[in-house]
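> forwarded from #structure-qc
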Protein backbone atom coordinates (compact mmCIF):
# COMPACT_ATOMS: atom_id res chain seq x y z
CA UNK A 1 0.00 0.00 0.00
CA UNK A 2 1.39 3.37 -1.01
CA UNK A 3 1.40 6.08 1.62
CA UNK A 4 0.15 9.48 0.60
CA UNK A 5 2.10 12.34 2.10
CA UNK A 6 0.02 15.31 3.09
CA UNK A 7 1.17 18.73 2.01
CA UNK A 8 0.96 21.50 4.57
CA UNK A 9 -2.15 22.88 2.84
CA UNK A 10 -4.01 19.55 3.07
CA UNK A 11 -3.03 19.11 6.71
CA UNK A 12 -4.29 22.62 7.46
CA UNK A 13 -7.60 21.98 5.66
CA UNK A 14 -8.18 18.68 7.45
CA UNK A 15 -7.05 20.20 10.75
CA UNK A 16 -9.55 23.03 10.45
CA UNK A 17 -12.32 20.53 9.81
CA UNK A 18 -11.26 18.16 12.56
CA UNK A 19 -9.93 20.64 15.14
CA UNK A 20 -12.42 19.37 17.72
CA UNK A 21 -10.60 16.03 17.67
CA UNK A 22 -7.15 17.53 18.34
CA UNK A 23 -5.57 15.31 15.71
CA UNK A 24 -1.83 15.70 15.33
CA UNK A 25 -0.28 15.98 11.85
CA UNK A 26 0.54 12.25 12.03
CA UNK A 27 -3.08 11.53 13.05
CA UNK A 28 -4.35 13.57 10.11
CA UNK A 29 -1.95 11.75 7.80
CA UNK A 30 -3.21 8.42 9.14
CA UNK A 31 -6.85 9.46 8.58
CA UNK A 32 -6.06 10.67 5.05
CA UNK A 33 -4.53 7.26 4.24
CA UNK A 34 -7.22 5.12 5.89
CA UNK A 35 -9.12 2.77 3.58
CA UNK A 36 -12.82 3.36 2.88
CA UNK A 37 -15.03 0.27 3.18
CA UNK A 38 -18.42 1.80 2.32
CA UNK A 39 -19.60 5.11 0.91
CA UNK A 40 -23.08 6.59 1.13
CA UNK A 41 -24.25 9.53 -0.98
CA UNK A 42 -26.26 11.65 1.48
CA UNK A 43 -28.33 14.82 1.02
CA UNK A 44 -30.23 17.27 3.19
CA UNK A 45 -32.11 20.52 2.72
CA UNK A 46 -29.92 23.59 3.14
CA UNK A 47 -30.10 25.48 6.43
CA UNK A 48 -33.31 27.45 6.90
CA UNK A 49 -35.29 25.82 4.09
CA UNK A 50 -38.85 24.76 4.98
CA UNK A 51 -39.59 21.07 4.47
CA UNK A 52 -42.09 21.80 1.68
CA UNK A 53 -39.38 23.27 -0.59
CA UNK A 54 -38.48 20.82 -3.40
CA UNK A 55 -35.08 19.18 -2.99
CA UNK A 56 -33.28 20.62 -6.00
CA UNK A 57 -29.59 21.37 -6.53
CA UNK A 58 -30.17 24.91 -5.32
CA UNK A 59 -31.99 24.02 -2.09
CA UNK A 60 -30.14 20.88 -0.99
CA UNK A 61 -26.64 19.93 0.09
CA UNK A 62 -24.80 16.69 -0.78
CA UNK A 63 -21.93 14.80 0.73
CA UNK A 64 -20.55 11.31 1.13
CA UNK A 65 -20.52 9.51 4.47
CA UNK A 66 -17.70 6.99 4.54
CA UNK A 67 -17.14 4.05 6.85
CA UNK A 68 -13.47 3.26 7.37
CA UNK A 69 -11.57 0.03 8.13
CA UNK A 70 -11.89 0.76 11.86
CA UNK A 71 -15.67 1.31 11.64
CA UNK A 72 -15.40 5.08 12.20
CA UNK A 73 -17.62 7.25 9.98
CA UNK A 74 -16.85 10.63 8.44
CA UNK A 75 -18.76 13.04 6.22
CA UNK A 76 -16.81 14.36 3.24
CA UNK A 77 -18.52 17.37 1.68
CA UNK A 78 -17.85 20.55 -0.25
CA UNK A 79 -18.98 24.12 0.12
CA UNK A 80 -17.82 27.70 -0.41
CA UNK A 81 -15.27 28.59 2.22
CA UNK A 82 -15.54 25.24 4.05
CA UNK A 83 -11.75 24.94 4.33
CA UNK A 84 -8.65 27.01 3.68
CA UNK A 85 -6.62 24.78 1.37
CA UNK A 86 -9.64 23.00 -0.05
CA UNK A 87 -13.40 23.54 -0.06
CA UNK A 88 -13.84 19.75 0.28
CA UNK A 89 -13.56 18.87 3.96
CA UNK A 90 -13.77 15.86 6.29
CA UNK A 91 -15.86 15.98 9.48
CA UNK A 92 -16.83 13.34 12.02
CA UNK A 93 -20.20 11.86 11.03
CA UNK A 94 -21.23 11.96 14.69
CA UNK A 95 -21.96 15.67 14.11
CA UNK A 96 -24.47 14.99 11.30
CA UNK A 97 -28.07 15.92 12.03
CA UNK A 98 -30.93 13.50 11.45
CA UNK A 99 -31.95 15.57 8.40
CA UNK A 100 -29.43 13.76 6.18
CA UNK A 101 -30.93 11.06 3.94
CA UNK A 102 -29.02 8.25 2.24
CA UNK A 103 -29.56 8.35 -1.53
CA UNK A 104 -27.13 5.61 -2.57
CA UNK A 105 -24.79 3.21 -0.81
CA UNK A 106 -21.92 1.23 -2.25
CA UNK A 107 -19.19 -1.07 -1.10
CA UNK A 108 -15.76 0.43 -1.75
CA UNK A 109 -14.03 -2.67 -0.43
CA UNK A 110 -11.02 -0.73 0.82
CA UNK A 111 -10.03 0.19 -2.74
CA UNK A 112 -9.92 3.92 -1.94
CA UNK A 113 -8.68 6.12 0.87
CA UNK A 114 -10.10 9.21 2.55
CA UNK A 115 -7.48 11.17 0.60
CA UNK A 116 -8.74 9.73 -2.69
CA UNK A 117 -12.26 10.86 -1.79
CA UNK A 118 -11.15 14.39 -0.84
CA UNK A 119 -9.17 14.66 -4.08
CA UNK A 120 -12.20 13.48 -6.12
CA UNK A 121 -14.29 16.17 -4.40
CA UNK A 122 -12.04 18.87 -5.80
CA UNK A 123 -10.32 21.74 -4.07
CA UNK A 124 -12.33 24.77 -5.22
CA UNK A 125 -16.06 25.48 -5.07
CA UNK A 126 -17.68 27.26 -8.01
CA UNK A 127 -21.40 27.06 -8.68
CA UNK A 128 -20.88 28.76 -12.07
CA UNK A 129 -18.24 26.21 -13.16
CA UNK A 130 -20.24 23.25 -11.84
CA UNK A 131 -17.79 22.59 -8.99
CA UNK A 132 -20.38 22.24 -6.23
CA UNK A 133 -21.30 19.76 -3.53
CA UNK A 134 -23.55 17.64 -5.78
CA UNK A 135 -20.83 17.15 -8.41
CA UNK A 136 -18.25 16.46 -5.70
CA UNK A 137 -20.43 13.75 -4.16
CA UNK A 138 -21.02 12.13 -7.56
CA UNK A 139 -17.29 12.18 -8.30
CA UNK A 140 -16.53 10.53 -4.95
CA UNK A 141 -19.17 7.84 -5.51
CA UNK A 142 -17.73 7.15 -8.98
CA UNK A 143 -14.48 6.05 -7.36
CA UNK A 144 -16.26 2.89 -6.19
CA UNK A 145 -16.93 1.90 -9.79
CA UNK A 146 -13.28 2.42 -10.79
CA UNK A 147 -11.44 0.10 -8.46
CA UNK A 148 -7.68 -0.43 -8.64
Amino acid sequence: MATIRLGAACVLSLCLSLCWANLSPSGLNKLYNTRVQTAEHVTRLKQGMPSWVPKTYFTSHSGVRVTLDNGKQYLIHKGPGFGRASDTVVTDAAHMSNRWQVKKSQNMGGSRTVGDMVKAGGSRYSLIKGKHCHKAAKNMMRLGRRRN
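QC bot note: The mean pLDDT is 81. Residues 8-142 form one domain.
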